[in-house]
Design a protein that fits this description.
This protein has 285 residues and is mostly helical. The chain has two domains: 201 residues, Up-down Bundle (Alpha-lytic protease prodomain-like), CATH 1.20.1510.10; 75 residues, Alpha-Beta Plaits.
C-alpha cells in the first residue's frame, strides 16, 4: 500500500474514532457538568475536522503532475494542515474562555463512574490510533500524518489529566477541573501554532535543510569534470523539494558531454529521499 493510500486509511480511522469519542464525551460531559470533559469533547470535534482535512488534503496531494501543476499537487498537504492548525487555535481560545469562567465563577463537577470509564476508553482508543499513525509517520514523511500523530498523543495526555480531575472530585476538589480545562486549551493552542509555523514555512517556499545541501555537494564533488558549483536553490513541492544547481565545466567540453554530465548529476541528486526533481544548469568556465 503506497504513501497516499496509507494516509487515506489513517484519515478514515481518525474520523470514525473521533466521532465515537465526541458523542460519548460530549454527552457525559454536559450531564456531569465537567468542564475538562467538555473541553476534551470539543478537542475530539477538532480532531474530526483534522482527520477530514487529512483525508481531503491527501486526496488532492496524491494527484499526479499535469499541465497546470507541473510539479504535482504536494503542497495541498500543507494547505490543509494550515486549516487544521487555525481551527485548533480558534477552538483553544473558546475553551480557554469557558474554562477560566468556570474556574472564576465556580462550577461543581458531578462525579460519575461513567466519566472514569469514558476517560479510560478514550485513552485506549487514542493510544491505538497514535501507535498506528506513528508507524506510518516514520515510514512516510507526511505533515498530515505527523499532525494527526501529535493530536492522538496529545489526547492521551489531555484525557489522563481529565481522569485525574474526575477522581479528585471524589474528595470535593473541584477547582482542578477548571485548571485542566485551561491546560487543555493552552496545549491545543501550542500544538496548533507549531503545525501552523511548519505549514507556513513550506507554503512560503522555505529552502531545503543544510544536511540535504551537504549531501548534494558530496554528490557533485564526485564528478571530477565539475570545476565549480555556483548556486544551489530549492523550492518545496509538498514533502519534497525541486533542486536547482548551477555548475561550471571546462569551456572546451562539448555540448553533448556537458548535457550528459548534467543528466547524470540530476539522476544522482534525485535519488535523495526528499528530492522530487533536480534541474542542473551548465556554464563554461
Amino acid at each position: 500500500m503506497d504513501r497516499f493510500a496509507e494516509t487515506k486509511k489513517a484519515g478514515i480511522l481518525g474520523i470514525v474514532g473521533n466521532i465515537f469519542l465526541l458523542i460519548i464525551k460530549g454527552t457525559i460531559g454536559f450531564i456531569t457538568n465537567s468542564q475538562a470533559m467538555i473541553a476534551d469533547a470539543a478537542n475530539s470535534a477538532s480532531d474530526i475536522f483534522a482527520s477530514l482535512m487529512t483525508f481531503i488534503g491527501n486526496k488532492i496531494a496524491s494527484e499526479p503532475q499535469d499541465t497546470t501543476h507541473n510539479f504535482g499537487h504536494g503542497k495541498a498537504e500543507y494547505i490543509f494542515s494550515l486549516f487544521i492548525s487555525i481551527s485548533m487555535i480558534i477552538l483553544s481560545c473558546k475553551l480557554l474562555y469557558d474554562s477560566a469562567s468556570s474556574l472564576i465563577l465556580g462550577s461543581e463537577l458531578k462525579f460519575s463512574w461513567f466519566l472514569v470509564i469514558i476517560c479510560i476508553i478514550t485513552i485506549i482508543v487514542k493510544i491505538c490510533l497514535y501507535l498506528y499513525t506513528n508507524k506510518l509517520s516514520k515510514k512516510y514523511n507526511n505533515i498530515l500524518l505527523e499532525a494527526n500523530k501529535k493530536d492522538h498523543r496529545n489526547d492521551c495526555i489531555v484525557t489522563t489529566f481529565t481522569l485525574i480531575s474526575v477522581l479528585l472530585s471524589l474528595a470535593n476538589i473541584y477547582w482542578f477541573d477548571g485548571i485542566v480545562g485551561i491546560g487543555i486549551s493552552v496545549f491545543i493552542c501550542f500544538t496548533g501554532f507549531k503545525i501552523f509555523i511548519e505549514s507556513f514555512n513550506v507554503l512560503m517556499d522555505i529552502s531545503v535543510d543544510r544536511k540535504t545541501i551537504d549531501l548534494i555537494l558530496d554528490i557533485v564533488h564526485n564528478y571530477k569534470e565539475i570545476e565549480k558549483v555556483d548556486d544551489i536553490y530549492s523550492t518545496p513541492v509538498g514533502y519534497q523539494y525541486v533542486i536547482f544547481i548551477t555548475i561550471y565545466v571546462d569551456g572546451n567540453m562539448s555540448t553533448f558531454d556537458s548535457h550528459n554530465l548534467a543528466d547524470s548529476l540530476e539522476k544522482d541528486v534525485s535519488k535523495l529521499e526528499n528530492v522530487y526533481k533536480t534541474i542542473v544548469h551548465v556554464n563554461p568556465i
